[in-house]
Amino acid sequence: MPNARSVLQPVIEHSALRAAHQALGKGQAELSLSGLTRTAKALAIAGLAQELGRPLVVVTSDNEVAEELREATSTFLGWLTGGASRAAAGVLPGLDCLPYEGRSPHPDISERRAVALWNVARGRTPILIAPLEAALGRYRDKSYYASLAVELKADDELSMEDLAEHLAGVGYEKGEPVREVGQFSVRGGIVDVFPPDAPWPFRIEFFGDRIESLREFDPDSQRSRQPTGASPQPASALLLPLSESRRSGRMFEEIAKALVERARTRDRERKRPRSEVEPSWAPSVSREFPGWEFFAPLAEPHAHSLFSLFEQPIVIWDEPPERERQLQQFLENLEVKYDEVRDAEPPPLEPDDFFLTAPEFAAATEKLPRLALKELALEASGEFNLPGQPSPKFHGDVKALAADLRSRLDRSEVVTLVFPTGGKLDRMREVLSEYKLPFETLAVGSTEADPAVAAAASKPAAGAEDLAGRVLLVRGEMESGLVLPELRLAIITDRDLFGGFAWGAPARKERSAVSSFISDLSDLKAGDYVVHMDHGIGLYHGLRQLAVEGSTRDFMLLTYQDDARLYVPLERLDLVEKYRAGGDGAKPHLDRLGGLTWARTKTRVKRALRDMAEELLRLYAERKMRGGVAYSPDTPWQKEFEDAFQFEETPDQITSLADLKRDLESPQPMDRLLCGDVGYGKTELAMRAAFKVAQDGKQVAVLAPTTVLAFQHYATFCQRMAPFPIRIEMLSRFRTGAEQKKVVEETEAGRVDVVIGTHRLLSKDVAFRDLGLLVVDEEQRFGVAAKEKLKKLRANVDVLTMSATPIPRTLHMAVGGLRDLSVIETPPRGRLAIQTIVAPFSDGLVQSAILQ
Fold first, then answer.
1. Is residue 743 very low, low, confident or very high in pLDDT (cuts 50, 70, 90)?
2. Which pairs count as long-range contacts for 258-264, CB under 8 Å and 24+ apart, including other chains?
């Protein structure tokens, strides 16, 4: 059985990589590797680390790209080293705010930076991937970062006071009891602490100034679990930092003193009258304050570059021309932000206090070996080419995958499928067996959970010639795969296989992807915007015929930023679709061919879709499990109530009302979207549903986004239901505090049948005795926090959502069958159309509109 290293060995031995290894090993100052996709860049980085044994600092664009590179690089390192941990890739994330915003970085960013810098200082990170902003920073010396973490063992001599002071200094907060990461507590002779990267918090018992024992404990029960560490070695605990700057009272005093002196110096330079009295803002900066991290250089010098924290590093640039433009834009933007707050109090630090200048940054790297990783190949000296392509995308189409794999095996390609979990890998074994495709599982290391894989780790590695003819399965984490035609190698990831699904019903997928594409693009003309799945938004310029390998083929010509051209063969038209403009009709920005904007956009959308899918699955599974309430058929009162309607129902109203009643009389919980323009009669149907529910002793909540709309509903409900013994109340700012308190109490007691309100209905003090129906008007106008509370209500009750303009997600759920949909398209007889006027601003026009 082959191991994972066998797959990569031909790549490592490729002439381009081999030449780059040798040139860097001889100390050549600057060279390039081109033709690389992002996954190929990660492979090149891993190969360099394995071959050269020197630390690598990779400078890329942003945190997202850095994390993607780290993931793939770590996977390839695991394959090359047989799962050994000798080499590891780390990320030093850039800050999520600028120094002049008056806020501190996000705690998660601060923690990740602190841990990364500690690992660098301790020599535990042979590969560090850093966004340009992080690489530009000024840093303290290596010994400072090496002291941020502390490793404790039983019988160590250390006072509890010193430990508590250290923990508070590196970002831990006091909490009693300790339940969350980043908390610590001191009581008696015990210190509890929950460091990052630890599965359980530690309980450290002292006898005087000696550590007597170290144990893990359960944060929920607060009971000890077991000693940490393996016998007979003494138990140990590694307490990693949460901040890269150590806080202390002395530091804040020095910051305040330095800021006061800076303010006086500024006054002298501008010949302003100055006072020897301490400024009024001085006390506020003498203790922790928002954004204090950016003033730390006043107390502790930051005199080093990131590269000086390594011993003889090699600097790797991801797309150097783009990084040069990014460097210039970042420094210019920093100057603009500084100019905006230059005269603020207390005086801000200058950009040079936080970041290296462009000349300083160049000087920090000019004496180090430098390697450029480029996607586009150029004919230049010192450039080596390793041509690669992105792997194909299958979007969950298993038949297409099987056909592609069979074709590649017929061409004797080495095909490797990469899965992040053992469960997915096992499922792919079943799929390949169903399609009668030969496969084998690769070994990464003896730590594999699969016994067959573990046994393979001890066998000799197979040669490249032994890998073709079967599909290879392996564990790993990477965003996208890689195809190297020259080496007849294809690496396809789980995201390539199942990263995007066709959400339509299977019965509707009767045509091929190409025929669907051509039908959809039949009205395309030159100059129209299109979207390529891998490269983003471009301009369509018609079809072109090109001679390729002795034959003439048809291609679609797309152009991107800087007039970059992309020729898409007709057999891959499934990757392109017509751009659909948003509601504002604004023209989109063209993406850069080979750039990063489109990849970031896709990642954000995937994340949002994944979150939405998980949310919907949990909600609808919970609703199905709990079931709903089957309300009684129409009563004489129901008929009376409906007959009291003073207008004639439209056909759509009658149809929608039947839908509502069918849902309410079913034991399955209702979740229906009722769409209709303003004045089409949605509120009347909601009142009839509320009346039906209230008759069976259940309560109804009507949620409106504004106070005025809530009051309008309240008046309408009261008017229509006045003849019946149904109590209706309102919760909004139109009610006094005492009135609201009384309504809340009586609602909880069950004495209110229908309560109408704004966000006030979602307050913690509002509780229902037996809520049966939730009516939400214009859900799209509620914020995130309100919608989170609505989710909890949805799990237990029938829901009716009304909207004239539903948000795309809500409408898509309804059209896709996840929510039921009723549409009122016919207006009531005699309804006046809405009058819309677009005109220059005028006080008289506004006054007229309000009066009317």
1. very high
2. 258/298, 258/299, 259/285, 259/295, 259/298, 259/346, 259/347, 260/346, 262/346, 262/347, 263/345, 263/346, 263/347
**Would you put residue 432 in left (φ > 0), alpha (ψ -120 to 50) or beta?**
alpha
Closest alpha carbon to 357 in 396, 398, 327, 390: 327
- Asked if residues 229 and 236 have their Cβ atoms less than 8 Å apart, the reply is yes
CB 100 within 8 A of CB 341: yes
Q: Where are the alpha helices (DSSP H) in 696-804?
A: 707-721, 737-749, 784-794
| Token output for 181 | 């990461």
What are the contacts of 464-467 at 24+ separation with CB within 8 A? 464/6, 464/9, 464/10, 464/414, 466/2, 466/6, 467/2, 467/6, 467/7, 467/414
8-state DSSP, 521: T
Kindly report whether the peptide bond that precedes residue 241 is cis, defined as omega within 30 degrees of 0: no
Angle between helices 38-52 and 4-12 (to 10 degrees): 90
Contacting residues for 109 by C-beta, under 8 A, at least 6 apart: 93, 95, 96
Residue 77 tokens, joined: 């390192």
pLDDT in tens, 264-289: 888 787 777 666 677 888 888 888 88
Q: Would you say 132 and 158 are in contact if contact means Cβ atoms under 8 Å apart?
A: no
Coil, helix or strand at residue 820: strand
Nearest by Cα to 672 from 567, 776, 549: 776
> Residue written as tokens 């106070």?
707
State the DSSP H helix or E strand holding residue 543, giving kind and residue range, or none if neither: strand 536-548
Q: pLDDT (tens digit, 9 = 90+) per residue, 509-554?
A: 333 334 334 444 556 778 888 888 888 999 998 888 888 766 777 8
Contact 394, 502 (CB under 8 A): no
- Residue pair 443/456 in contact (Cβ under 8 Å)? The answer is yes
Instruction: Give the range with max mean pLDDT: 293-297, 499-503, 664-668, 826-830.
Output: 293-297
Q: Which CB contacts under 8 angstroms, 24+ apart, belong to 483-487? A: 483/388, 483/389, 483/390, 483/391, 483/392, 484/11, 484/40, 484/386, 484/387, 484/388, 484/389, 485/387, 485/389, 486/14, 486/387, 487/10, 487/11, 487/14, 487/414
Q: Which amino acid is at 308?
A: S
Q: How many residues does the chain have?
A: 852
Look up residue 387 and give its two tokens.
């041509």
Token pair belonging to 586: 């604004």
- 822: number of CA atoms within 13 Å, CB side? 26
pLDDT digits (tens, 9 = 90+) for 383-410: 788 888 889 888 767 888 999 999 999 9
Share of the chain above pLDDT 70, in %: 82
Query: Largest alpha-carbon pair distance within the chain?
Result: 95
Evaluate the CA torsion angle 143, 94, 67, 391 in order and state its sign: negative
Q: What is the pTM of this model?
A: 0.61
What DSSP designation does 763 have? S
Residue 754: CB partners within 8 Å, gap ≥ 6? 690, 694, 699, 700, 701, 702, 717, 721, 726, 727, 728, 729
DSSP states of 247-311: --HHHHHHHHHHHHHHHHHHHHHTT----SSPPTTGGGGSS--TTGGGGGGGTS---B-GGGGSS
Q: How far is CA 727 from each of CA 69, 137, 173, 636, 765, rounded to the nearest angstrom? A: 62, 65, 50, 19, 20
Three-state secondary-structure class, residue 342: coil
Q: How far apart are CA 18 and CA 47, in angstroms?
A: 9
Give residue 516's pLDDT.
Answer: 38
How do residues 482-494 score in pLDDT, each as one tens digit? 999 888 999 999 8
Q: What secondary structure does DSSP assign to 578-641, as a single string?
A: E----TT-PPPPPPPTT-SHHHHHHHHHHHHHHHHHHHHHHHHHHHHHH----PPPPPHHHHHH
3-state DSSP percent of the chain in helix, strand and coil, to 5? 40, 20, 40
Beta bridge partner(s), residue 417: 473, 492
Q: Are residues 565 and 559 in contact, defined by beta-carbon separation less than 8 angstroms?
A: yes
pLDDT at 414 over 60: yes
Q: Tell me which residue of 42, 74, 76 sits closest to 58, measured CA to CA.
A: 42
